[in-house]
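Students often ask why we bother encoding 3D structure as a string. The short answer is that it lets us treat folding as translation between two languages. Here is a chain of 218 residues written in the first language.
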Amino acid sequence: MTAPHRRHLGRGAYVYVRQSTPGQVEHHKESLERQYELAERAVGLGWARESVVVVDEDLGRSGASAEGREGFQRLVADVGLGKVGIVFGIEVSRLARRNADWYQLLDLCALTDTLIADADGVYHPGMHNDRLVLGLKGTMSEAELHVIRSRLQGGLLHKASKGELRLGLPVGYDYDEDGRVVLAPDEQVRDAIAHVFARFDELGSARQVMLELIEEGR
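And here it is in the second language, the structure alphabet:
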């Protein structure tokens, strides 16, 4: 474990907060609170409160890739610019589920003398033993993602084998009580869809149909 030095305290303490889905954000309040409480831990380690930066733009986004995670990308950029003294995440999986993204962050932290902290302790990616621990944590996080995916896939296949798998249906269709695909019971929805197809048959262009619907205020 590594203790922060004055050179670290003179830079920002970045607290990265993420949950994978909007449902988790709404229902897993305790996990979210624990992540936000890392800001107090940063203060307890010596950072001034005004130096603590909470990065929570990625709430409701998966950690399987850095793509589309603006918060993580901002964090990595600021680490590279030497603005960050320490990065907090409640666990490695909050920061990255993919080793390529994780090791990019580790390399930048090692290069810029930036610490990483999780619920277990504080680490310096530039130190061999700490790097080994962080590498193992990243490997386990990525492996866990594969296990989760396998379980989900297995569950879907099991439902499909019993004829119980229900996939999302296009607008205008629904499942009845017996699980059969039927037209939506809402007459207004059915009429709107029928109108769109009728206009397409007449105009022959999806763009023209769209423009006409906009003009009609639909």
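Translate back mentally: The chain has two domains: 6-148, 173-216. Keep this in mind for the problem set.
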